[in-house]
Amino acid sequence: MKKMIQEFKTFAMRGNVVDMAVGIIIGGAFGKIVSSVVGDLIMPAIGLLVGGVNFSDLKLVLKDAVMDGETVVSPEVAIGYGNFVQVVFDFLIIAFAVFLLVKGVNALTTRKKKEEEAKPATPPAPPADIQLLTEIRDLLKEKK
Q1: Which sign does the torsion angle of CA 129, 130, 136, 139 carry?
Q2: For an engineered disulfide with 73, which of 26, 66, 101, 141 has Cβ 3.0 to 4.6 Å away?
Q3: Using CA atoms, how far apart are residues 83 and 38, in angstroms rounded to an integer?
Q4: For the chain, where are the alpha helices, taking DSSP H only?
């Protein structure tokens, strides 16, 4: 049991696992921001363009509610497709934002690799005996 706990600690403290956890947390927060943008900014504008329709209220009523005065005897049965439309817009915008983020990161990575490839590689220094022989050769050339 002790060995298993130690293995779990090793696994959990690896850099990529911690990075993934941070990514999931930030992704959840990012999803809330995008949902707010879609729900509070984009969908009302689209609703206005299509005649003032509130998408979250769109539904297909299969059976009307049965009422006895003000008491609901049988609730309404409906398919609420408006919320589905909202969630689809959320997904598309989040997917597009992630696409742009990945594309930007890939562009930076590619540019960095090209810059590294463009730099001329400095040749390694020759060994000491080769340097000594080169100096001797140069001195002999000077004496002639």
Answers
A1: negative
A2: 66
A3: 12
A4: 2-12, 15-36, 43-49, 81-118, 128-143
User: Which are the contacts of 72, defined by CB distance < 8 A and separation ≥ 6?
Assistant: 65, 66
Cα–Cα distances in Å, from 17 out to 5, 14, 109, 119? 16, 6, 22, 34
| 76 Rama class: left (phi>0) / alpha (psi -120 to 50) / beta | beta
Q: Give the pair of three-digit tokens for residue 65.
A: 């509610």
Q: What is the pTM of this model?
A: 0.50
- Taking residue 89's Cβ as centre, other Cβ atoms within 10 Å add up to 19
Q: pLDDT tens, 11-63?
A: 767 767 777 788 888 888 887 887 788 778 887 887 788 777 677 778 898 99
Specify the DSSP class assigned to residue 37.
Answer: I
Per-residue CA distances from 118 to 19, 86, 106, 114, 133 (Å): 31, 48, 18, 6, 32
> What is d(CA 4, CA 52) in angstroms, rounded to the nearest whole number?
59
